[in-house]
Amino acid sequence: MTRHLIISIIMLLVLVLAPPASKAQPQEPTIYTFTAHFDVPRPQWAEMTTNVEQNVRPVMERMLADGTIESWGNEERIIHEENGTTHGLWWAATSIAGLERVREELIKIPSSPALNNPHHDHLMESIIHRGKTAGPTGGYLYVEIIKLRPGSGQTWRQLWEKYFKPTYDELLDDGTILSYEVSNEYVHHGDPRFRSILTVTPSAEAQGKVDAAYNAIFERGGAAIIAALNSVSIRSEHRDVFARVLNYAHK
Fold first, then answer.
1. Which neighbouring-strand residues pair with 34?
2. What distance lies between CA 57 and its chain's CA centroid?
3. What's the start-to-end Cα distance of the chain, in Å?
4. Which residue has the higher pLDDT, 190 or 11?
5. Other CB atoms closer than 10 Å to residue 39's CB: what's the count?
6. Rounded CA separation 74/85 (Å)
7. Residue 216: CB partners within 8 Å, gap ≥ 6?
8. What phi and psi, each to the nearest 5 degrees, are found at residue 42?
9. Distances from the Cα of 195 to the Cα of 65, 121, 162, 230, 242, angstroms
């Protein structure tokens, strides 16, 4: 048997006996979200709502229908803080260009006194995003904001995916959650170590189920999960946002 024939046989055996390569999991597209927050005096709340319904909603519905955006919504804060915001509007897309198409349409809308109050914006990018087709509907928005310890971003994500993501996926699949997202700022206003965990639920009862499921994670994990999370995050920097969603839609 010649040397070349032996080498050919060996190579053939390697190809036949080697285990099949595992298929790479498709990577979720990054979702970019533009959020506009307004501090509206209470006498102007009705005007703010009317402006969104008459002027903003048609733009968002058109952009959702043609695929420019993935979702949109507007909300009124339930829990207020001094010098904080009272109303919010957001839209999400798989590209900055998609966000800009919406913004360019919105700035054409005639101004109203309700929009001439102090406001600020955020531009976020998703780390994890899952949502189901929904809307137009209302509901509730809950945002948990966490500050990570230096250099802990990847470890925190691994812990969140291990302990929390399976529960959030179950709640999404059974309709308790309409969408959830883990995100950070794309354009930074402050410390880049902040992470936001957002959920949109269809009702107060659904929000209660999410709270119960969240607490059950800690009951199952015991002291170990608390210690693991404390090792990567700063508990004293934690804060929350709770709001009533007036309009919400997801493609």
1. 91, 123
2. 20
3. 64
4. 190
5. 15
6. 13
7. 167
8. -55, -40
9. 30, 16, 17, 14, 16
Q: Which two tokens stand for residue 62?
A: 């058109």
Q: In this structure, what token pair is assigned to residue 224? A: 């170990």
Please state whether 28 falls in left (phi above 0), alpha (psi between -120 and 50) or beta. Answer: beta
Place of tokens 């509730």: 140
* Residue 246 token pair: 């007036």
- DSSP H helical segments within the chain, as ranges? 3-17, 45-51, 57-65, 96-106, 153-163, 165-173, 204-230
Alpha-carbon distance values, 20 to 16, 24, 93, 174 (Å) = 9, 12, 36, 35
Other beta carbons within 10 angstroms of residue 77's beta carbon come to 18
Domains of the chain: 28-245 (3.30.70.100)
- Amino acid found at 104: E
Whether pTM > 0.85 for this model: the answer is yes
Residue 191 has pLDDT above 80, yes or no: yes
